[in-house]
Sequence to fold (159 residues):
Amino acid sequence: MTTRLPQRHHPVRILLVFVAAVVVTAVVGSLFSVSAGDEYLALRRPSWAPPAWLFGPVWTVLYGLIALSGWLAWRNGATRGELTLFGVQLVLNALWTPLFFGLGWFGFAFAEIVLLWLSIVALIVVFSWRGKAASALLVPYLAWVSFAGALTISIAMLN
Fold:
């Protein structure tokens, strides 16, 4: 049996909760990526690797889409389990940066990004039950994480 969360909260306040959740995710990542740009440039990278300056703007847009997706799913009756999955993918998102940049564990970072990718796919599926928009907003995120996974394994192999 799935439990639906009550809709008695003001929608704008709940949107701010989703925004806060992705901001916390971003901040956790940024704590471990203060020197990430320099570290990234010092790594052997494949020829198709993007420039370091691109990551910040891309993640800013993606985090906005992720927050909006979660909020739309909530507005459309997402269950506690579905929103827990939303939280799980945020935790997995936040873990990649400390593994890759903080610890330099490229292989573990790749394994972790595979888990993140799987959680995003699952979230797209369950959010599709709540509406096309909630699901579709996660597709760019999945695309970027797919690219980031390929980049992670390439860097792991080159370094």
